[in-house]
Specification:
Elements (H helix, E strand, L loop, with lengths): L1 E3 L4 E7 L2 E6 L3 E5 L2 E11 L1 E6 L2 E6 L2 E7 L3 E5 L3 E8 L14 E3 L11 E8 L3 E8 L4 E6 L3 E8 L1 E6 L2 E6 L3 E4 L4 E6 L3 E8 L2
Antiparallel strand pairs: 1-4, 2-3, 3-10, 4-9, 5-8, 5-10, 6-7, 6-9, 8-11, 12-13, 13-20, 14-19, 15-18, 15-20, 16-17, 16-19
C-alpha cells in the first residue's frame, strides 16, 4: 500500500501485486515497508527515489528493483506515470539484471531482423512482466487475448488494432487489452514494448 503526504495521484489500473499510478508534480510521498522486492518503471516523467543512503533519479523508461523493509521517500516535480510491482525474490529473472538494479527495460532485449523476441523479467501466480522486441515489419496477427494485458511502449512505433479501431503506440504510451478481446500488433519500425499479463 502507498501512503502519501498531501499527494494528488490517481491509480489508473490496479491488481494484486501491481498498480499503475499517475502523479501530479511537486510532491513528496512514501512507500510503506514491504518485506521482499518492489520494481518501479517510469512510463512518463521522473521520480527521485531516496533509498538510504542512495538517491536514484529515474526518468522515462528507467526501472529500479529494490527492497523496502523501511519507508522509502519518493519525490517528483512533474507529471509522472509509473508502474509498481511487488515481487518475491524467486519471481525475479536474475539473468536479466547483470548491469545492476538500476536499468532500462528496453536494454534487456535486442532486435533480430524479421523476428519477435521476448524475455520474462518477473512473474508470480498473479502476473507476468515481459519485454518484447519487434523487428521492422513484424507483428502479431489478429487473435483473442488469453489474459488481460497492460501494454506500454518503450521504443519505436507500432500499430495496435483493437475492437475494430487502430491506435499508434510509442514510448510512454499505455494500452489496456481486455481478456478475450481481439487485437493485433504491427511494428511500423523497430519497436519495443513491455506488457503485464494479469494471470489471476
Amino acid at each position: 500500500m502507498t501512503t502519501s503526504n498531501n499527494i494528488k495521484y490517481k491509480v489508473m489500473k490496479e491488481g494484486k501485486n501491481y498498480k499503475i499510478v499517475c502523479l501530479e508534480p511537486d510532491h513528496t510521498f512514501f512507500l510503506d515497508p514491504y518485506p521482499q522486492y518492489r520494481m518501479i518503471t517510469i512510463l512518463k516523467g521522473m521520480i527521485r527515489v531516496h533509498y538510504d543512503p542512495v538517491l536514484y533519479f529515474l526518468q522515462q523508461e528507467q526501472s529500479l528493483i529494490f527492497r523496502t523493509e523501511q519507508n522509502v521517500n519518493l519525490e517528483t516535480d512533474q507529471d509522472t506515470v509509473y508502474v509498481e510491482i511487488q515481487l518475491e525474490a524467486e519471481h525475479l529473472n536474475r539473468e536479466a539484471f547483470t548491469k545492476g538494479n538500476h536499468f532500462r527495460l528496453k536494454d534487456l532485449l535486442g532486435y533480430e531482423m524479421g523476428q519477435i523476441k521476448e524475455i520474462v523479467v518477473a512473474e508470480n501466480e498473479n502476473l507476468q512482466l515481459q519485454v518484447l522486441s519487434y523487428g521492422h515489419g513484424t507483428g502479431l496477427n489478429e487473435q483473442a487475448a488469453k489474459t488481460e494485458k497492460v501494454v506500454f511502449g518503450l521504443e519505436g512505433r507500432a500499430v495496435i488494432g483493437y475492437k475494430k479501431k487502430e491506435y499508434e503506440l510509442k514510448a510512454g504510451d499505455i494500452f489496456l487489452i481486455e481478456k478475450k478481446a481481439s487485437y493485433f500488433i504491427h511494428a511500423i519500425e523497430k519497436f519495443k514494448m513491455a506488457q503485464i499479463k494479469v494471470l489471476n
